[in-house]
Amino acid sequence: MDGAHDMGGAKGFGPVVPEPNEPVFHADWERRAFALTVAMARPGGWNIDMSRFARENRSPDDYLSKSYFELWLAGLETLMIERGLVTREEIEAGKVLSPPKPGVKPIAPIEVTPAIRRGGPTEREPKAPAMFAVGETVRMKNIHPVTHTRLPQYVRGHLGTIELNHGCHVFPDTNSLGQGEDPQWLYTVRFDGPELWGKDGDPTLSVSVDAWESYLERA
Amino acid sequence: MSDHDHDNHGHHHHHDHSELSETELRVRALESILTEKGYVDPAALDLLIDLYEKKIGPRNGVRVVAKAWSDPGYRERLMKDATAAIAELDYSGRQGEHMVVVENTPEQHNMVVCTLCSCYPHPVLGLPPVWYKSAPYRSRAVSDPRGVLRDFGVTLPDTTKIRVWDSTAEIRYLVLPMRPEGTDGWSEQQLAELVTRDSMIGTGLPKQPGEAA
User: Fold this and answer.
1) B170 touches chain A (CB under 8 A)
2) What string of DSSP letters covers B71-102?
3) Average pLDDT estimate for B65-94
4) Which pTM value belongs to this model?
5) CA distance linking residue B25 with residue B95, whole number of Å
6) B93 inside 8 A of chain A by CB
7) Cβ(A158)–Cβ(A209) under 8 Å?
8) Which has the least CB within 10 A, A156, B82, B144, B177?
């Protein structure tokens, strides 16, 4: 969706402000919200693309007024409510008002380190040969899905060059909707600064995105 | 906890921990709901937090870079298959399943961003800093990277090309900075002192020999 999360090239946000000796978390609730989100994914039965969509699928003013971990918390609440794990009333009341959903098994402490070290690889066996070759010029499609996509607006319609082929990877646009992994070839596509930002764009700049095959068309 | 100490002394008002924010209360309540329902084990949450605060952090990436600077064979393996080379040092997994290392040269400086959320290579750098997740960085890194570098106090020669990697998929990028001049004969441990987190994101440069701790 064309939401406030898609920030590449937006103006008016001001300078980047680095924080010397920054801690990993800035409040205890950030620790717990982070851990709850990571620990609920498997019992909750959602994937990373569903999580991302749950965080970004909101009005621009809501998205921009929340801190990073506030967005994580809001996303977690949405995902759990959608699946009937908790109710909105329980979250607002801050206490249990209905029985647990049966068959939901928590992550045990002994499982934590192995699960993190394993992660969730997204590469899959190819089912067809790659359509595009490294070095080829391609055009990014001009698409505006109302659902989750990982094709940022600032590259849509622009010409780029295939720089790397990463193999076939789970396609977020379908995976976020529970419509299957639909693995597709994933490429790094590089763009020249002026192609993206016009004649005043920095000529020494190039930018790349990682793009699934169905985001691309022949130039 | 300091709350407890204060309770013992009988004056617990106007204390940092006695006035909890709405969000703090909401998260606490949520954790107790999920625990009571049997969906989470708080001991597993404690372990997760401990992992990300104590074990998974930029010092892991520092080891990767220092080894690449001092061991040409390792550098070659790292550039060819970063995921495998990083796993040699026992770093792997969540948000680093598919790693690519990009090398700075006198001709090209690399910078990594995630404009759509805040993707970041956790096994080697830990969780991202606030600025990396912020709108200013996510909006400007792809259109005005030299301006972003100025915010970090870094100026590159006008002739150096800037290459920005927007992490829009599950590929995670680590910048291999240039080994500083004047470090001939330095050990891997000495070189590690020069590697900063920001130099591995591309918003900073390594320390110079005189700046090492």
Assistant:
1) yes
2) -HHHHHHHHH-HHHHHHHTT---TT-SEEEEE
3) 98
4) 0.94
5) 29
6) yes
7) no
8) A156
